[in-house]
Amino acid sequence: MAVNICMKDIRALHQLALERPLTDIGIFLTSYCNLASKMCSYWKEREHGVSYDRVLSLLEEARSLGATRFHPFGTEIFTREDTLDILSYAETIGFQEINVVSNGNLLLDEQRIEWLATLRTLCISISLDGPRSYSRVYLVSME
User: Fold this and answer.
1) How would you classify the pairing of strands 97-102 and 69-74?
2) Which residue from 60, 63, 72, 91 has the highest number of Cβ atoms inside 10 Å of its Cβ?
3) What local confidence, expressed as pLDDT, does residue 1 receive?
């Protein structure tokens, strides 16, 4: 849907935003990373984002407003100790799609993979960056 709004009419823009249904929520979890990629300097900030309790309340509020997709983001969200609990909570309260981007290195733990496999709404995208000589590809089947 394309909408043309003159920036002079900021009230119309606000009204349009209020009338549009909420479908997605993205919450910043962390800028910590287990890698130090040359192509990314964001990991240097090294701070966690929204607190655990605040993440849960934001998820609840978003669900009550109709959101069905959750996009936790940051550099490597699996460096945060409560990430698995957050993902599980999102599914428990009814999010139908949880989209995560990871470098995959922290997913090599068998126990973590088995736990993640229990989340039926989880979709993990693996980001592969770096020189070819350092590249390794892991194919993980959740079946």
Assistant:
1) parallel
2) 72
3) 44
